[in-house]
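Example record

The entry below shows one chain as it appears in the dataset: sequence first, then structure tokens.
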Amino acid sequence: MGQYFLDSLRTLKGKHNAVQEVRGKGLLIGMEFKKPVGGILDHLTAGSLNKIAEEYYASLVAAELLKKHQVITAYTLNNPNVMRLEPPLIVEKSEIDYVLNALEDVLSHSTSFFSLAMSAMTRR
């Protein structure tokens, strides 16, 4: 199941620019996100907007997964731009597919840091 999950996440990475790297061993998996903000807004804020986005992007993705799909994940403390995926050892393929579909939904509907942040701020 771990190899299936890793391979599927790497396929998802190819579809979404927000994902920088997928790494893991067995069912302990990390998804690292790219710095999502750049351009004129980052320039106008002297880089502080990019720093905020870098530190909170994974937590915003995790919040959306929980809010919309009831999928619990966490971000790492030593690199807050990495989201941990740690399913139980008895996970079934259908449950992994559910998480993959949930990630696809969140990443495809949250095309920027701002849209992700605004969605996380709204209550359902």
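Notes for this example: The chain has a mean pLDDT of 84. Helices lie at 2-15, 39-44, 48-69, 93-109, 113-121.
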